[in-house]
Amino acid sequence: MDACRIAWDATGTTYAGACLSAVGAQDLQEASAIALRTVAAWLQRIDSGEGLTGVGVLVVDEATMTDDRSAARLLTEAARTGTQVIAIGDPLHLQAVDGLTLDHLDDVRHRMESGQQPQRVWDVPAPGPPLSFGSTGPSSK
């Protein structure tokens, strides 16, 4: 992150970060010298009309743990304001209950770059069949 911050400073790029927890945001801010807010705080800014205006790059830490709807709101606002989103995190970490994956973010980025309307993350079908709690196989007698 230091190399990115130094490069952004050298080019005059404005940058900020987002993290799920306040403690995580504080720890990462101390380690990276990048001003961070929680994802919830960024969503409040979007709701108030400030949004991501003036932010050139938004670094989302632990992106795989961000729920789909929050990620979709951040990405939609980023597209509106021209903010580049950098999603960082371990794809092997636990995912949010809604199951956002870096593959979803990558698909959104590819669609936007090609001029297509990105699919809403929560419209992406879940992989595999739905869970079944009853017996579906032949009964054993």
How would you explain this protein's 3D organization?
By secondary structure, the chain is an alpha/beta fold. The chain has one domain: Rossmann fold (3-Layer(aba) Sandwich). It contains 5 helices and 4 strands. It has helices spanning 2-11, 22-32, 39-48, 68-81, 102-113; strands at residues 15-19, 36-38, 57-60, 84-87. The chain has a 4-stranded parallel β-sheet with strand order 2-1-3-4, with helices on both faces. Strand 3, helix 4 and strand 4 form a beta-alpha-beta unit. Residues 124-128 and 130-141 have low confidence and may be disordered.
What topology emerges from the helices and strands here?
Layout: H1 2-11, E1 15-19, H2 22-32, E2 36-38, H3 39-48, E3 57-60, H4 68-81, E4 84-87, H5 102-113
Helix pairs in contact: 3-4
Report on the biggest sheet: 4 strands, parallel
CATH topology: Rossmann fold
Rg for CA atoms: 18 Å
Q: Which CATH class?
A: Alpha Beta
The CATH architecture classification is 3-Layer(aba) Sandwich
**Strands of the biggest beta sheet: in what spatial order?**
2-1-3-4
CATH homologous superfamily grouping: P-loop containing nucleotide triphosphate hydrolases
- Helix-strand pattern, N to C? HEHEHEHEH
Strand-residue proportion: 5-15%
- Unreliable stretches (pLDDT < 50, length at least 5) are 124-128, 130-141
User: Which geometry do the CA atoms define?
Assistant: globular
DSSP, total strands? 4
Mean pLDDT: 77
- The figure for the number of domains is 1
**Which class of secondary structure composition applies to the elements?**
alpha/beta
Q: So how many helices? A: 5
Helix content: 40-55%
CA-CA gap between termini = 61 Å
